[in-house]
């Protein structure tokens, strides 16, 4: 009962946080889109209104010049004889230099930009459909850890599906020391078991697994974490034997000389009756030149021995 209430409370918190984050992100995206569209309106307005504004200024300048010339002509007509001749001469001179019939062409009304916004209300229905399908709540994760088997320096983790309606494409296994706050990925693939190596003996580890549905991108909820440990120390070869060099973890021995016949010993009796011991021997072929042996290629071998897997 307590675990149900605890998991329900955690699920509520996760849902609230996710949808709050989603609302904040959507609001930010809508604000950014609005700013972009408003900037486009400003740009079009500035680019298209400048030629019309210049045209208006030229027309106003021509009209004002004509009005000033008319006023000067009226003054010249109303003046005295001497003043009239001088005023008429000045008026005539200015009139010859002013092209009253030359004004910039006013664009047609159909050629003048008329800004508008095209907004497709169907986006609301699309978003609504996605929101109504977003997120699911499950009473239990679709996969659970089935078995933890200790091995020398490792633990075999096996898991299985518990939801028959869930079709798994991939599985994802994570583990951590119980003293750590951070899980790390150790396996992603289609298999339902994996041996986790480099496990410290007599130390508790937590394991959890999730799955990705067929054709989906998101991962399922994590399984209930299971605690496992190994009391078996990892295998090591004893160092110092002539003709062999060991890896950093001393679980792999490499023969340095193909002629040496030294014997390898384990550093401790780490295996007992009933446990499986597996050896793997790898060979690297060296081919002698054909002319040295009358046209026949003879493979020469240098071997190495792995510790148990």
UniProtKB/TrEMBL annotation:
<dbReference type="GO" id="GO:0005737">
    <property type="term" value="C:cytoplasm"/>
</dbReference>
<comment type="function">
    <text>May play a role in the negative regulation of cell cycle progression.</text>
</comment>
<dbReference type="InterPro" id="IPR013783">
    <property type="entry name" value="Ig-like_fold"/>
</dbReference>
<dbReference type="InterPro" id="IPR003961">
    <property type="entry name" value="FN3_dom"/>
</dbReference>
<comment type="similarity">
    <text>Belongs to the cytokine receptor-like factor 3 family.</text>
</comment>
<protein>
    <recommendedName>
        <fullName>Cytokine receptor-like factor 3</fullName>
    </recommendedName>
</protein>
<keyword id="KW-0175">Coiled coil</keyword>
<keyword id="KW-0963">Cytoplasm</keyword>
<feature type="domain" description="Fibronectin type-III">
    <location>
        <begin position="141"/>
        <end position="234"/>
    </location>
</feature>
<dbReference type="InterPro" id="IPR036116">
    <property type="entry name" value="FN3_sf"/>
</dbReference>
